[in-house]
Amino acid sequence: MVLAVFALFFVVPLVWVLFAMTKSGGELQRTAAFAPGSLSGLAGNWAQLSSFQDGAVTGWFTNSVVYSAGALVLTLVISIPAGYALALTEFRGRKLLLVMTLVVMLMPSTALVLPVFLEMNQVGLIGSPLAVILPFSFYPYGVYLTFIYYSTSIPSSLLEAARLDGCNEIQVFWRVALPLATPVVALVGFFSFVQNWNNYFLPFVMLPSSDRYPMQVGLSTLLSSTPAFNPSAAGSQSVQLPALALATVVSVLPVLVVFLFSQRFLVAGMTAGGTKE
Questions:
Q1: CB count, 10 Å around CB of 110?
Q2: End-to-end CA distance of the chain, in Å?
Q3: Which pLDDT belongs to residue 210?
Q4: CA-CA distances (angstroms) from residue 5 to 16, 19, 74, 202?
Q5: What does the buried/exposed string (b/e) look like for 155-193 if buried means 16 or more CB atoms within 10 Å of the residue's CB?
């Protein structure tokens, strides 16, 4: 029963989208909802999509890759060492930082958009890629995941042995702790990439120019240019429903690719911490 409800609300719309992107606008109305279209229909929809606003979709897709990849690198560079330091080192203010991390992690990200916008406006970054990449890089959930992993999965005696062998704190982290944290690095990287790729509100506020939009914000432009959703959009720049369905599939492909390549590490990362020294 639960699986049937799940299929009704999630799987059925996905199957419809996959079939819809292979049909022309007329075929979508004439044929059955779950009847397959053709490769020529798919090619026609791609041609319509790629010609929309002189190739705007390609630019949106490229922007999403740049924003998500840039923020992913910064997130890993910041979150992994921060979680390690909170878990396995002692310094003044450690508990306060940990509490602040947990509090910010629980806050909805949309609540921080206004203060972040004011900060970016103050330093003149509104409209630039950094206005999106820098806030994306702030990922307290990644710090918390790393903190949990190092607290429960890495024996402190192992790090002490490295120190006795002459390693300083940076060498202990780089040569011992980081290689052992591959599963949690993959887990933090995957969650960060998915969150950044699907983020809509922050880029919508930070980027006033449509040529800087990421794919998710661009989809809203496509939606408003579809006569089925906006009757006033009929014209040469309008988009038919099958082309919109194709754009939806294109927008989720990178997440699926990243998941397929990292699933082995994701499973290891999610089960890490089940044992304790």
A1: 12
A2: 42
A3: 82
A4: 16, 21, 40, 33
A5: eeeebeebeeeebeeeebbeebbeebbebbbbbbbbbbb
| Tally of CB atoms within 10 A around 236 | 4
Nearest alpha carbon to residue 148 among 78, 192, 82, 74: 82
Residues of the chain scoring pLDDT < 70: 234-236, 268-277
Residue 114 token pair: 């206004």
Cα separation values, 222 from 23, 57, 66, 228, 231, Å = 18, 9, 21, 11, 13
Let me know: does 276 contact 156? Beta carbons within 8 Å. no
Q: What is the DSSP string of 58-113?
A: HHHHHHHHHHHHHHHHHHHHHHHHHHHHHHH---TTHHHHHHHHHHHHHS-GGGGH
Neighbours of 119 (CB within 10 A): 14
At residue 13, the pLDDT reads 87
The CA-CA-CA angle for residues 73, 190, 170, to 5°, reads: 45
Instruction: Give residues with Cβ within 8 angstroms of 215, minimum separation 6.
Output: 57, 60, 61, 63, 64, 197, 250, 251
Quick one: pLDDT at residue 277? Answer: 46
Nearest to 218 by CA among 190, 194, 199: 199
Looking at residue 36, its pLDDT comes to: 86
Residues 6+ apart with CB under 8 A from 154: 87, 88, 177, 180, 181
What's residue 270's pLDDT? Answer: 63
Burial class (CB in 10 A: 0-12, 13-18, 19+), 152: middle
Q: What is the pLDDT of residue 227?
A: 85
